[in-house]
Amino acid sequence: MLCQYEECLLPQGHHGQHNKYPTSAWEFMVNKDKNKLVKAGFATPRGGAKGAYQNHVVRSNRVIIPFERLESSPLEKYLDGYVIRVYPEQFFDAEGVPKSEFINKNAAVVVGDNAFVLYRTHSSFEKFPPLKKWQICHLEKDGQPVTSRGKGVKDVGHYVLRMSALGSKPAVVEGPPQGLFAPEYANTKTNYLSKCVLAWLILHTLDNPYSKNQKAQIEEILDGTGISKTTEFENRGLMRKGITCCPLCLKHLHYSELHEMVTFEDELGLENAGSQVEGATRSTLVNLFHMLPLRYDTFQHSPQSVAWGHAICNTRLGQRTCFSKSELMATGKAIKISTKEEIADLGWISEDSKMIRSKGGAVWIQLNPDPGELITEEEVEKSIEELS
Prior knowledge:
Elements lengths: L30 H10 L1 E2 L13 E2 L4 E4 L15 E5 L1 H4 E3 L2 E2 L16 E5 L2 H6 L10 E4 L2 E3 L7 E3 L2 E5 L8 E3 L5 E2 L6 H15 L13 H9 L5 H7 L2 E2 L2 E2 L26 H7 L8 E5 L15 E5 H7 L7 H7 L2 E5 L4 E7 L5 E4 L4 E3 L5 H4 L2 H11 L1
Parallel strand pairs: 3-4, 3-13, 4-7, 7-11
Antiparallel strand pairs: 1-2, 5-6, 8-9, 8-10, 11-12, 14-15, 16-17, 18-19, 19-20, 20-21
Helix pairs in contact: 1-4, 4-5
């Protein structure tokens, strides 16, 4: 039983202070497993430095909202704050002339208040230089500049420089990272419960070193917070026959794979990738896996969406939803194969036609849409006219 006093998730009758997010639930794990859970709770955007993103910090922090994504972003749900990124081309009408929407009395986006301008090229800096009253973004505490974030530290300033080298012009990096990549955000509670799910899945990998008794507190937390376990996890493809599996290929996961480095041996269709990538990556064979693609308009790092999966399967899936066989069967869109001899059942296809699963769970993924979806007939005709 859990304490539940003021949402405390420690065991009933515990000693000491109450705790809504007790990591003691997996304190028995070896350090490499605990570190794996810690890393899963971090935002780690690829190429984030050029976008002024923070890297390897917990997901419950301030996020960056691109100006062009503002209308579709659920701003009220970012409990840890947000800042809007604006490019100089978006902010200025001409040199020294801001667009009216940024300087109106009731402007929703105010640079230096809830927004900053990001310069990524020397040409944009020269064409639209910062206003004279602007300051480079920096951190302050009690009115004094500081170099790292912490309690009482404030973000101050108007613009950040992340300009790449060009010819004789050097790279310029000024101003601290401004926030997280927004699709990777999760509030403290969601982030914690996601770790609980991931811990549970570690405890159900093949050949894991843990005993049944050690699972008790994590199991109680999942039960006490309404998170279904084995049956639901099986339906969603996180487990198969009570053992943790990769949601895409459905192969059972061995505990050792959580820490082994990825290779490309015996990976159908990736024979050439091994010589190009193997040895150049530090990814483990099994990593954090999101069942739903990370997006700006909704939060997908959640207990209902996280899993462990093969790094290679993650790459294959890309920005697609990973449908389980049960989910595809529920849509009722069956696929059949017609031959001269018979019509045989193959499996089921997703509503968006991006994934097929066979009756046994084998998977096919749409690599790209029909060419007709990428360009209109009018655009084709125009191109033909221009070339003729």
